[in-house]
């Protein structure tokens, strides 16, 4: 498998946690948006939402 080839996320057998493959500090957005079009990100005391739009763009909001 090449470094840019897509593998997909791995699911933990004991929880709903996913392991997202990362190569050279890079994630594939297809692995992030497998179940929904919105992801909540905790960054310190702040919460952000990363959304995948109908036009296949990403929007990060606080």
Provide keyphrases for this structure.
62 residues; mainly beta; three-stranded antiparallel β-sheet; two-stranded antiparallel ribbon; 5 strands
How would you portray this structure in words?
The structure is a single chain. With 62 residues, the protein is mainly beta. It has a domain at 29-61. Helix content is 6%, strand content 34%. The chain has one helix spanning 29-32, and strands at 10-11, 18-19, 38-43, 46-52, 58-61. It has a three-stranded antiparallel beta sheet, with no helix packed on it. Strand 4 and strand 5 (58-61) form a beta hairpin. The longest helix has 4 residues, at 29-32. The radius of gyration is 13 Å and the shape is globular. The model has no long low-confidence stretch (mean pLDDT 83). This is Hemin uptake protein hemP.
Rounded mean pLDDT score: 83
Helix content: under 10%
- How many helical stretches? 1
Number of strands: 5
For the termini, the CA-CA separation is 37 Å
What is the SS-derived class? mainly beta
Strand content: 25-35%
The H-and-E topology, N to C, reads as: EEHEEE
Strand order within the widest beta sheet:
3-4-5
Main sheet: strands, sense, barrel:
3 strands, antiparallel
Organism: Aquabacter spiritensis
Pfam families: hemP
Protein name: Hemin uptake protein hemP
Concise synopsis of the structure shown:
6% of the residues lie in helices and 34% in strands.
Give the SSE layout.
Layout: E1 10-11, E2 18-19, H1 29-32, E3 38-43, E4 46-52, E5 58-61
Antiparallel strand pairs: 1-2, 3-4, 4-5
């Amino acid at each position: 498998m090449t470094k840019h080839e897509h593998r997909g996320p791995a699911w933990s057998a004991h929880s709903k946690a996913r392991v997202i493959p990362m190569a050279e500090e890079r994630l594939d957005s297809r692995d992030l948006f497998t179940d929904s079009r919105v992801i909540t990100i905790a960054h310190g005391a702040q919460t952000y939402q990363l959304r995948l739009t109908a036009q296949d763009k990403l929007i990060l909001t606080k």
